[in-house]
Amino acid sequence: MALTPRQVLVLLAVLALIAAVAYMTVGAKGSWSFVLPFRGTKVWAMTVVGCAIAISTVLFQTISANRILTPSIMGFDALYALIQTTLVFVLGGLAYATVDPQLRFVVEVAAMVLFSGLLFRSLFSGAAKSLYLLVLVGIVFGVFFRSLSGLMQRLINPNDFAILQDALFARFSAIDPTLLVVSTITVALVCLWVVRMLPVLDVLALGREHAVNLGVDHKRAVSEILVMVAILVSVSTALVGPVTFFGLLVSNLAYLIIRSHRNALILPAAILLSVICLIGGQVVLERVFGFDTALSIIIEFVGGLVFIAILLKGKGR
């Protein structure tokens, strides 16, 4: 017998709890007073990042009416890589490694939010074609940022490049507690904002014409959502680094298992799936592969396969 969407959410919540408990306890050695806070911080970070990526992806797909688009298409990941590359290119690898992580976090978030704000303000006018233009310009900027990053990466010395490469992969260890608290508060406030807009999100999913006919201020609503997406992506990327295909993976899995267009069901499903994938994947990575690879590499590989499968099956709207 098929499960109802609410039963699926309960099952996902149980699986997420099991993954968290497994990560906190499996292979634990030494004093629990050290193990639990140490691993608990990682679980906390993965939960915050997973929540931010899942919400931003579902929101972006809702307003773009396309399930193969993610906020990374706007060039956020490329801008993050450009910021890191520029810092290493200007300061050098050793000086870069000694930069205060809190200062670097503020610079990265400010740069990405400023970039998105200028992009939205200059291109978005409320018409449907403007949203498509926004996506197109985001892709162009992404290519431009990657080209600049590639040029500088070819000019720096190999030792600095090795330090840079480590910064360009998402990392869930050694996260600054202060930054984690700030990120948690920011994501929580955006979540409250999203909850307030849930009824509007379902109407926006019907398309611009239907939303306008039903009395929704389409320009204002989409502008608010784009701001939320920019904040979530900026905070998650600055906190742990870019994870390009992860949002695509969890959002499409949520659509598949929930089989509903209601954002009140899709959003929590995507959040729980992201938590399961991140924490469960970290358990497998640490206990099976023994830290032989980065979790972000596995996520990118699986997410890329999902992206190709969606394209081949023509499931993207």
What is the structure about, briefly put?
The chain crosses the membrane at residues 43-66, 78-99, 131-149, 179-205, 225-258, 265-285, 291-312. With 317 residues, the protein is mainly α. The chain has helices at residues 5-25, 32-64, 76-91, 93-97, 101-123, 128-155, 158-167, 177-196, 198-204, 208-213, 218-240, 246-258, 263-287, 295-313.
Map the helices and strands.
Elements: H1 5-25, H2 32-64, H3 76-91, H4 93-97, H5 101-123, H6 128-155, H7 158-167, H8 177-196, H9 198-204, H10 208-213, H11 218-240, H12 246-258, H13 263-287, H14 295-313
Helix pairs in contact: 1-2, 1-13, 2-8, 2-11, 2-12, 2-13, 3-5, 3-6, 3-7, 5-11, 8-11, 12-13, 12-14
Membrane topology: Multi-pass membrane protein
Subcellular location: Cell membrane
Organism: Devosia geojensis
Overall mean confidence score, pLDDT = 81
Look at the structure and give the CATH class: Mainly Alpha
Give the CATH architecture.
Orthogonal Bundle
Residues in helices, as a percent range: over 70%
Backbone CA Rg:
20 Å
Task: State the shape.
Answer: globular
Write down the secondary-structure element order.
HHHHHHHHHHHHHH
What class would the helix/strand composition place it in? mainly alpha
Strand percentage, roughly?
under 5%
The count of helical stretches stands at: 14
Say how many strands there are: 0
Separation of termini?
29 Å
Count of the domains: 1
CATH topology: ABC transporter involved in vitamin B12 uptake, BtuC
CATH homologous superfamily descriptor: ABC transporter involved in vitamin B12 uptake, BtuC
Low-confidence spans: pLDDT under 50, at least 5 residues? none
* Main sheet summary: none
